[in-house]
Amino acid sequence: MSRFKSSIQVACAVGASFFFASVAHLSPVEANDKNVTVVITDHGFSPNKLTEPLHHPVHLHIENTGKEMHEFAIPEYRIYTRTLGPGETSDVEFSPWQAGSFVMYSDPYADSHPEFAGRFIVTNK
Description:
The chain is of the alpha/beta class. The protein folds into 2 domains: 1-27; 33-123, Sandwich (Immunoglobulin-like). The chain is 22% helix and 38% strand. The protein has helices spanning 2-24, 28-31; strands at residues 34-41, 44-46, 49-53, 58-64, 73-74, 79-80, 89-94, 100-106, 116-123. The strands form 3 sheets. A 4-stranded mixed β-sheet has the order 2-1-4-7. Strands 3-9-8 form a 3-stranded mixed β-sheet, with no helix packed on it. Residues 1-31 form the signal peptide.
């Protein structure tokens, strides 16, 4: 029985070593979802252009640092945060499924008149 346990312990140790060795060469973006913070001020987004690879998970952390109400939207990806008051945040996680250049905007009053816009670019790399 102890020889059987030893074989299992060695197999687990070898498997764990292989796993950690294979993950060690990955960059943080490859090892985890990509985390991007988008700050909304009363004058626009920072950054106002995001470039992400096709089919790779992305986590957007949206922060309203302005004094007015704002929102974050990428309509082609059906992403719409709630209207964020000053100091509020929202998180969005998704994997872009279509390459191209898409508008991201803030329209806190939902009147089809965005207060400002930026670009969300998805590359096929």
